[in-house]
Design a protein that fits this description.
This protein has 378 residues and is an alpha+beta fold. Helices cover 34% and strands 18% of the residues.
Length: 378
């Protein structure tokens, strides 16, 4: 329930204090790893200007190269082939245009290279003519084909190249490879030899109790809070101490901070608003149940949130209706406060003692009363 306190001062001015609370204490739960949204923005290579230009080039669209020059889009151009294979009579103009559109509709350069490789066949040299041995003799000759009505029709290299509007170098790259796997770009996709395993770091960060704010979930649904006395330096010192006990080489503090910032959405500031025991229970049920149980828990949680919102709306209306004839009084077991505040390293892994605060407020007189006691007292 949301409470509004209006505290009168000697000068007659009013100060307003908003306190949102629930009848339960802050429940600690495991930290959820979030690889997509962390404290810092994660890089999205698909939105990089260089990769956008690469994608445009693959699709045959107009783009600007790294030198700053504008490259026009690929457009179909009808040509007249005068070779002895009479390619124009075998393949009509609209067939060539359809083949070109199919080629540039492929998603990646690798898929296009595989497509070209399937249209090229290598064969042994049947006859060799005398030469002065200034060049290394060819080991194979290549034949180029168009697929039409499930039939492969041979065409000349120039007709093939101009239809798909690719360079001689790209055709050679595809035709000279014996295996399809060799068409992969060998410059990328390799795992770094010095890659660091962050499993131990993630496990250590998860060992700290985290809290989710109940009433601020609409603004920060994935944000969780750690003990406000903690910070990155203290967490790393605890991590280094644990690694020393387990005889494990710790990572650098900079890398520890990188994992903390990119794989977790954790903050050290103490949330100003409490958590709800029902919401925490239903959230755990959603994460651990089967498909049917998840659906039932989601419906139950939605009903719970709708009831909470309806209660806040009714309370706001009653607060405005307070007068000499109508008495409005509210009470609630408010935010549970952690006590005592310890800076010992062991205390960061333990659950603290909580102190309860029962608040009562008279809306007619704008007077609030607070009753405080520890959780050990009944």
């Amino acid at each position: 329930m949301v409470l509004q306190y209006k505290l009168s001062t000697e000068s007659g001015s009013r100060k307003r204090l908003w306190v949102s609370s629930d009848s339960s204490d802050c429940s600690s739960k495991n930290i959820a790893t979030n690889t997509s949204i962390g404290r810092k923005r994660s890089c999205n290579p698909d939105n990089w200007a260089r990769n956008i230009q690469k994608q445009k080039r693959t699709k045959g669209l107009a783009y600007r190269n790294r030198g700053g020059y504008s490259i026009p889009a690929k457009t179909f151009v009808d040509i007249i082939c005068r070779c002895r294979q009479k390619c124009n009579k075998k393949i009509l103009s609209y067939d060539r245009e359809a083949a070109m559109k199919t080629f540039y509709s492929l998603d990646s350069q690798l898929a296009q290279n595989i497509f070209l490789r399937g249209c090229i066949r290598a064969k042994e040299i049947k006859r060799r003519r005398p030469s002065n041995n200034t060049k290394e003799p060819r080991s194979h000759s290549f034949t180029y084909y168009f697929r039409k009505d499930k039939h492969d029709i041979p065409v000349c290299k120039k007709y093939f190249r101009d239809t798909y509007q690719v360079s001689d170098g790209r055709i050679y790259k595809c035709s000279s490879k014996e295996q399809v796997t060799s068409l992969f770009d060998q410059r990328k996709g390799r795992a770094a030899s010095n890659k660091i395993d962050d499993t131990h770091v993630v496990k250590h960060i998860k060992s700290f109790p985290a809290y989710t704010s109940h009433y601020t979930r609409a603004h920060n649904p994935r944000r969780q809070y750690l003990n406000p006395d903690l910070n990155i330096k203290k967490m790393y010192e605890l991590y280094a101490t644990q690694c020393k006990k387990e005889n494990v080489v710790p990572v650098k503090e900079k890398y520890y901070y990188k994992v903390f910032s990119t794989k977790f959405n954790l903050h050290f500031k103490q949330p100003s608003k409490d958590t709800c025991q029902t919401c925490d229970y239903l959230q755990i049920k959603i994460q651990s149940s089967d498909s049917e149980g998840i659906q039932m828990a989601k419906i139950e949680k939605e009903n719970h949130l709708e009831e909470a919102e309806r209660a806040r709306s009714l309370m706001a209306a009653d607060r405005k209706a307070a007068s000499d004839k109508i008495f409005v009084f509210s009470f609630d077991l408010e935010k549970a406060l952690a006590f005592p505040k310890l800076t010992t390293s062991v205390a960061y892994y333990k659950r603290n003692l909580y102190v309860y605060n029962f608040g009562c407020h008279d809306f007619n007189e704008n007077i609030g009363h607070m009753f405080v006691w520890p959780e050990t007292e009944v």
